[in-house]
Hints:
Shape: globular
Helix content: 10-25%
Number of domains: 3
Radius of gyration: 30 Å
Strand content: 35-45%
Strand order of the largest sheet: 15-18-10-9-20-23-22
CATH topology of the largest domain: Immunoglobulin-like
CATH class of the largest domain: Mainly Beta
Distance between the termini: 82 Å
Number of helices: 5
Structural class: alpha+beta
Amino acid sequence: MFMVSKTRLAPFHLGGGLAMRRNHRAWVFGALGLIVSVVGAPAWGQAEADPSPEQIQEMHAMGSLAIQAVQGTPGAPEIGATEVEVDLLHQNAVVKAIRTELDEYGVVVIDDIPLNIRVRPVVRVKYAGVTYQEVGELMDLTRPQQTIEVICYEVTDEMPAWTIPIRQVMLSYVPSGIKVTEIIMIMNPGKKTWLGTANPPDDPVTMEMVLPQGAQEVSLGKGFHDWCCTSFLDARLINHLPLMPHVTELNLSYLIPVDTESADLEITAQGDIEQLVVMLPEQMHTHEVKGLALGGTKQIADTSVRYYTATDLRKDNVVGLTITGLTRVGDTPRHAPPTINRTLSLVAIGGVVVMVAIVIFVILSARSRARDQEEKGSKSDLP
């Protein structure tokens, strides 16, 4: 602002008097320029105020982050010196990357966490060839210290008796067809990280998922490391990431193009599924339902959502439904008011807006069973 004002003042002072005598309009514009310059610019020669001691302290304030790697496999040796990575995120962007090592006790304290902006630490510990990640709480001047525990496990090549407590499939209209959004919870009851089934010359495989016929534009979300550890071949989504103990959540979405007025959606169980939930807007007409039971309807915002369920599916079981009353690719679906996609997005974001009670019950039941198995195993190991 100061530089702009100075540039505008110069022509007025250099030729202002002559301009006022020759042209009244030029004088008016020159006066206006002078007023704007004086009002908008700081006084000549006035220096900016020096920051206060408190402001200086805030600008250079540092916090501390303590990290400890904890052994999660019973009877295994404690975690010692190993690599650790810390990314400090501000508005989902990395503002500082720290690379260091844990000491012989599996601990490190980082004292140079900048607090002049609010940051969230993301900690990754590498142990036995597997990276374990924990996301911390926000840190700022009011929360300058934090401790993060990262649980690591021994690895195994032996496949655990993993199951899927809950798999949600949500359908919504888009101009090019039907968008399918899935949330999958996988339970590994073991106490070691499973590296997967050998698959030479490619990486080991922990899960293979058959997508509906014609699925395209596959987008990977939570639980996947993008496409670096996932492959898609002949409608099969193959996950190469190690499967850690307890619950792992996977999110993905894909598109089913619509070339006729109906579409068949087949869902193949990629493992034993305790509870499958399929949700779709009430305006989507279903002509045929296979292996699914109508669970009911739920009003979300101004849209009615219908859902179907299936329980105790075994690996490779197939269920599905036929959706009718659709229009071809590029046309506006005749049964899709504008609020449908927004409402189904709310369902996807919320995850379990419709079946929240079922999901909580299933996951807690699965965890309870896992704890019971652990207690029985511990007792059997006693002399």
